[in-house]
Amino acid sequence: MTKEKILLEHGAGGLLSNELVRNLFLPAFHNPFLQQLTDSAVLELGDKKICFTTDSYVVSPIFFPGGDIGSLAVHGTVNDLAVCGGKPLCMSAGFILEEGFPVGDLAKIIESMAVAARKAGVQIVTGDTKVVPKGAADGMFINTSGIGLVEYPHRIAPGSIAPGDVIIVNGSIGDHGAAIMGSREDLQLDAGIVSDSAPLNGLIAEILESGSRVHCMRDATRGGLGAVLVELAGQSGAELEVRESDIPVKESVRGLCEILGIDPLFLANEGKLALFCPGPDAPEVLEIMRKHELGRDAAVIGKAGAATPGKSGRALLRTVAGGMRVMDLPSGELVPRIC
Amino acid sequence: MTKEKILLEHGAGGLLSNELVRNLFLPAFHNPFLQQLTDSAVLELGDKKICFTTDSYVVSPIFFPGGDIGSLAVHGTVNDLAVCGGKPLCMSAGFILEEGFPVGDLAKIIESMAVAARKAGVQIVTGDTKVVPKGAADGMFINTSGIGLVEYPHRIAPGSIAPGDVIIVNGSIGDHGAAIMGSREDLQLDAGIVSDSAPLNGLIAEILESGSRVHCMRDATRGGLGAVLVELAGQSGAELEVRESDIPVKESVRGLCEILGIDPLFLANEGKLALFCPGPDAPEVLEIMRKHELGRDAAVIGKAGAATPGKSGRALLRTVAGGMRVMDLPSGELVPRIC
C-alpha cells in the first residue's frame, strides 16, 4: 500500500478500493470463494448451491428521494444475491446507532426494511444492534448479509462472458447517485431526481426461468456502470465495447451531471444491472425486461469482443462525438457515502 | 418505546436492548426464525440444516490485552454459530473505516482476522469496505455474519431446557469486560487482565460428538452470564438456580470489580458459554471441557428447576452470604463498546 492513511477513495468502488482488496484482503483471507471477486460467494452445500453476500450501508442523508438507508440495505443485498443467480432466502440486519439517534427515525427505517423485504420475498431472520457514544458514528449504519439459493444450472460469472455476448442494462443509469447528490444539504439542487433503489430478484428470476442463456450479471452500484464494465473486462479478459449514445440516462440526471461536471457512467445505481448474454438470446431478455416495471427502459448498450490470451481486457466507450475512449476505474470519489 | 432517543443502554444487552428487540424489530420483521431469539437463526435447506448469524463490532480500544476487534469479530460469530450446534462453514466481513485510519492498523486487524479464522477452521468468503469522512465514525467498525451447518440431531434451544438440567460454564467469567475496562485510557488500571476472546467451536464439537445430550447453550457476551441466565429463564419458563460460590471468577477480575463496584456476573465474555444438559450427562461434559484448553476451569454452577405453566421463569442466585437473589437484566451500561 502506497498510502499510509485510509482515504475516502478506498471506499468508493474505484481504483483504491480495488487496490485495498487485492493488496490486503485477498492475500490475508485467500480462498477460492473470495478470489472470484463476484457480488456473492457461491458455495456447495450437499446437493444445493448457495450464495452469500454482505454490505454495510453508510448513506447520507439516511432519508432521500426514492428510499432510505433501510430499503437500500435490503435492495443492495437482494441484488448482490440475484445477480449471482441466487434466489434470496434470508437476510441479517446489523445496526450501529449513535447515542441520541431518534427512536422514531429508527422505527421508520425498520418499517421501511420490513416493507422492502416483503416486496422482495425475503425474510430478515437474525440481527444485532450496537450503540456507540455520541460523536462515535454519524446517526446510523446498517449491515445486511444474505443467503440465496442458486438453481440456475449454468455459471453466471465474469469467466463465462464469451465473444459476441450482448451487453444489456435494464434502464437509465446514475439515478441513485444523482438523487443523493441532489439531496445533500450543501448542494440544495432539487432536480426532482429519485433514486432507482429497487429489488432486482423478480426481474432476474423471470429472465433465468425463461430459458434465456445468461453468462454474467452485475449490479452497477458504487462506481456506476463504468466501474462495472472496467472490472468485468479485467476479470473476463474480454474487450467490452459500449456506445455512449445507447446508454439510457434521464434528462434530469444528465442536467445535474453537466452542472457538476461529472459523468453519469460513474454514478451509483441501486436498481440497475449489466447483463451479458449470447446475441441470439438478447431479444428475449430485452422483451422480458421491458415488460417488467424495473426494466421498461432496458437497452442493448454494446457487446463483448474476444479475450486476448495473457492480456487484460479493456472497456471501450464509443462516445457520442464518435471517438473511442478506454475507460478506467475512477480514481477519485464522486459522491462520498452514496450507499 | 418510552424513550425518544437511543441511549447507550439500548446496545448493552440488558433491559433496553431487550425492549428494542421486542417493541421494534420483532413486530416489523416478524417471522418464526427471528422469534426464536437465539444466537443464530436455524433454517432447513433441502435435507440440510444451516444456522445464520450476524454481529457488528464497535469495541474500543480496537487493540486490547488478549485480542483486537478483528479476532473478536471472528470469535463472536463463530461462537454464535457453535452454541446453536452449528459447525461454522463460512463468514463475511464488512468494514466501516473512518477516513484517516492508519492502513498499517487495518493490515494488522485483517491479519488477526485471518489467523483467528484459520484457527477456527472457517473461511472468510465475502466482504465489503466502506469509508466515511473523518468524524463520521470512530476508527473502525466490523460486521461479521456467518453460516454454520447443524448436524446435531436434537434441538439446542431454550425450549429444550428440562427440569433437573445441570448448568455448566467452561471457565472464569468477566475476563473480556475487565480487560476492556482495564485498557481504557481514562482508567489506567493495568491489572494484567487478558480477554478470554476465543473460538468455542472446537470445544463444542467435542461435546456434541461425544454423544452427551445437550439441551441448550449460549455464549455469555454482552450483559455477561447474568443476562444470559435471566434471558434463558424467561425464554424457557424454567427456574434457574446458580450458586455464586461455584461461579469461577479470576482474583484479578474480582479485584477490579470490587474497586469499580460492579458485578462480574454482568461483565462481558467472548469465550465463555453456559451449557444445559441432563444431570447424568454432566460428568462427561465437564470432563471433556476440563481436558480442553478453553475449558480447564469449567464448573457446574447450578441447575434448572421445573417450568411453571403460564409463569415466566426466574434466574435465582444463591449468594456467597447464603441469601437468595432474583437476578434482573441490567438496566444500565457497565462498559460501553465492549464488543
Descriptive tags:
7-stranded mixed beta sheet; 339 residues; alpha+beta; globular; 14 strands; homodimer; 9 helices
Q: What is the overall silhouette of chain A?
A: globular
Query: Would you list the SSEs of chain A in sequence order as H and E?
Result: HHEEEEHEHEEEHHEHEHEHEEE
**What gap, in angstroms, lies between the N and C termini of chain A?**
25 Å
Give the strand content of chain A: 25-35%
How many H/I helices of chain A?
9
Provide the helix percentage of chain A: 25-40%
Largest sheet of chain A: 7 strands, mixed
What is the alpha-carbon Rg of chain A in Å? 19 Å
Spans of chain A with pLDDT under 50 lasting ≥5 residues?
none
SS class of chain A: alpha+beta
> Biggest interface, which chains?
A-B, 82 and 82 residues
List the helices and strands and how they pair.
Two copies of one chain form a homodimer.
Chain A: H1 15-29, H2 32-35, E1 41-45, E2 48-57, E3 63-64, E4 67-68, H3 69-82, E5 86-98, H4 103-120, E6 123-132, E7 140-150, E8 166-169, H5 175-183, H6 201-209, E9 216-219, H7 224-236, E10 238-243, H8 251-260, E11 273-277, H9 282-291, E12 299-307, E13 315-318, E14 324-326
Parallel strand pairs in A: 5-6, 10-13
Antiparallel strand pairs in A: 1-2, 2-7, 3-4, 5-7, 8-11, 8-12, 9-11, 10-12, 13-14
